[in-house]
Specification:
Largest sheet: 7 strands, mixed
Strand order of the largest sheet: 2-1-7-3-4-5-6
Order of helices and strands: HHEHEEEEEEH
Oligomer: single chain
Number of helices: 4
Structural class: alpha+beta
């Protein structure tokens, strides 16, 4: 059901907006869920992935593999994870790309900006919870 007249519900327009999104919007779209203990600690469900985070693959062929994020390749919508490589026929080793929605963040690389993002998201969650209780 459509709630806002400002947003199109057309599949064509949604797909075009997604696949032609600029880099600063792709950052938000390339978010990953937090592990259960991090979710409980920070009261936040998901956060954009960044280089240096430790993740575990939770979906797909490489389910269960863990490692540090080596790069976030926004142009191709993928991340590269440490120790997640494949041998080519000529002997060269290449990174296997994984979509961020298929991983869970187990350890966050904390910075001052990231702490403010987490606290802001947690405050918003608490505000919504109190608003629902009072209604």
């Amino acid at each position: 059901m459509k709630f806002s007249a400002d947003v199109s519900s057309s599949s064509r327009k949604s797909r075009r907006a997604h696949f032609t999104a600029p880099s600063h919007i792709r950052r938000k779209l390339m978010a990953a869920g937090l592990s259960k203990d991090l979710r409980k600690k920070h009261d936040v469900r998901a956060i954009p992935v960044r280089k240096g985070d430790e993740v575990i693959v939770i979906r797909g062929q490489h389910k269960g593999r863990e490692g540090k994020v080596l790069s976030v390749y926004r142009k191709k919508w993928v991340i590269h994870i440490e120790h997640l490589t494949r041998e080519k026929v000529n002997g060269a080793s290449v990174q296997i790309p994984v979509h961020p929605s298929n991983v869970a963040i187990t350890t966050l690389k904390m910075t001052k900006d990231r702490e403010s993002i987490l606290s802001r998201k947690a405050d918003g969650r608490k505000a919504r919870a109190t608003r629902v209780e009072s209604a």
